[in-house]
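Worked example

This section walks through a single chain of length 299. The input is the sequence exactly as stored; nothing has been trimmed or padded.
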Amino acid sequence: MLAALATLVMIQQDPAKPIGPLPTANHMAWHEAQYYAFVHFGPNTFTGIEWGHGDENPNVFNPTEFDARQWCKTFKDAGMSGVIITAKHHDGFALWPSKYTEHSVKSSEWRDGKGDVLKELSEACKEYDLWMGVYLSPWDRNHPSYGTDEYNDVFVNMLEEVLTQYGDMKEVWFDGANGEGPNGKRQVYDWERYEAAVRKWAPNAVIFGDGGDVRWVGNESGFVGETNWNFLPSGKYPGDQSIYHLLFEGDPNGDKYSPGECDVSIRPGWFWRESEDDQVKTLEQLKDIYYRSIGHGGN
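Given that input, the structure is written out below as tokens.
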């Protein structure tokens, strides 16, 4: 009898190489966040103006019934993972008592000038197990140094205040709007310096905006392309409207990992105003937005 011995030879192969740029750990945490609140709150909430002019009397900001715990309970009940707050919008009004501007809560009658929206919100986020992020507009229609080199120092100092006093931030949202300040000048934003400040003081955060980690999708309707690559070519920024198709769909040949975030308001404007209370999006509209954002691989 002839006995045949079969030998299995295991051939070790190198693992497949990744296609395209890889996400960072911060990117992966961001992907898991999926759905979160984006709160626009400030003087505009009381003036009914979408973009404040920076000449508001600080006393117009007086939210006597402000309750960050009620906010966070609502976000948690809605299945959200966290919240981004407009710490400073284009009007320059800071929702924390900044040392670098007089246009802030410290100059208002709210809480006798001792209030701090970011502090109360960060404490409520911890209680309800929500992550927190901040929106800071570099445009400042109030600060006297806006339009000069000195203002970049001011803005970086404000970043340090916000990113070191209120816990671990998970996202820093930079608005690219750039208009005139109180002196009629426009600012040359030092994006590289702003990014370096975030990397230093909020190492676990992704940056939304020009040159950051997460891209704008080219609209404020809440959806990204049915085809949605998480890549962009280096040197392409959201402020360049000529690349709308790249923002909306990404680029399969891009060399930078840049997933799409779909920002959208539940009403026509970003800030609350009573005149729009009958125009809040319906459940069907919100479901459609959900499917066309998270369903297409965005947040």
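What to look for: Helices lie at 25-33, 44-47, 68-77, 117-127, 149-165, 191-201, 244-249, 283-293.
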